[in-house]
Amino acid sequence: MARKQARPTPTQQVVLTPLQIICRECGSRMRMGHHSHRTVTTVQGVTRLTIKVYRCRNQQCPRFHQPTRPEEEGSWALPHGEFGLDVIALVGTLRYRQQRSVPQIHEELLKRGLQVAQRTVTDQLYRYEELLALHLADHKRLCERLKDQKQVLWVHSA
Ligand SMILES: [Zn+2]
């Protein structure tokens, strides 16, 4: 489907650099390979991300030339996602906590200054459901692990 609206112009620029620039495989200091760019729409506005991608330069290393992207990138958006995790969370909250319909959510996003098509709301809702399913699976695993630990703790405190 063609975009009805032009992509909004970024309201801020952020540069992301990996915190860990020591290769986890060989321990040598990685060097910056190239910049990559992404535009992410968050509830605050449209952010142009400049991402510094580092690579290991040690030719003997199994991770030679493999890209290392900034850790923080994942907290902005999902891989290949154009919308911030905060937008996904907002859409999910409006839908499931406040029982709003897709057109109502669309209207709410426009009111908050997010230039999005209604189709975007549906897409982000899918993302939200996927993340929720993953989270629930994780939560279940966590509970199972905690249950085991609790039994261990009880044994110790008894
Ligand atoms: Zn290395």
What topology does this entry show?
Layout: E1 12-16, E2 31-41, E3 46-55, E4 67-68, H1 73-76, H2 85-96, H3 102-111, H4 118-157
Parallel strand pairs: 1-3
Antiparallel strand pairs: 2-3, 3-4
Helix pairs in contact: 2-4, 3-4
Entry summary:
This protein has helices at residues 73-76, 85-96, 102-111, 118-157, and strands spanning 12-16, 31-41, 46-55, 67-68. The chain is of the alpha+beta class and 158 residues long.
Can you tell me about this structure?
- The protein has one domain.
- Helix 2 crosses helix 4 and helix 3 packs across helix 4.
- Strand 2 and strand 3 form a beta hairpin.
- Strands 1, 2, 3 and 4 form a 4-stranded mixed sheet that branches.
- The protein is of the alpha+beta class and 158 residues long.
- The protein has 4 helices and 4 strands; from the N terminus they run E-E-E-E-H-H-H-H.
- The model has no long low-confidence stretch (mean pLDDT 88).
- Zinc ion binds next to loops.
